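Take our chain:
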Amino acid sequence: MPFIFEKTLLKGLIIIQPRVFEDERGFFMETYKKSDFVGSGITEEFTQDNHSYSSKGVLRGIHFQTGAHAQGKLVQVITGAVWDVAVDLRVDSISFGQWYGIELTEENMSMLYIPPGFGHGFVTLKDNTHFLYKCTKEYNPKADSGIIWNDADLGIDWPLKKDLSFSEKDLALQTFRVYKELLA
């Protein structure tokens, strides 16, 4: 099998380590193989691919799509490094409001599968970071939402605390408390 699938403490959130074939010419690896992913429990169909390029210190997120447009994501770094965060926003989950962080780099070649119903964000740890993600639903601007990166209730421990760069949109995101009130 070309992948190792490692479950995390948050149900459905899976670290994926591809098998890398290296020699003096370079390397080859599979980044997705439907039969292996389905065999590990990842059954959603991917419908959109995204590519993000950022300099060091760019923080994007925490983003998610609501309702029927909730996206699962398979994320990986091609060059550079990110600290990637997934937040469980599934109200019926025992880990609702909990987060998980992992460093994804061009060296470790790890991937993270984030199931629908999670928020997602990342901060770039190196300049010239190229970050790819496959999504299980197409982006819908009417379903676009997010939670502010430094929400006190979530308490995400971002590895970079200064010299961060944000979009205006990301700085205006709601708190986790407001999100929960909207669900009630």
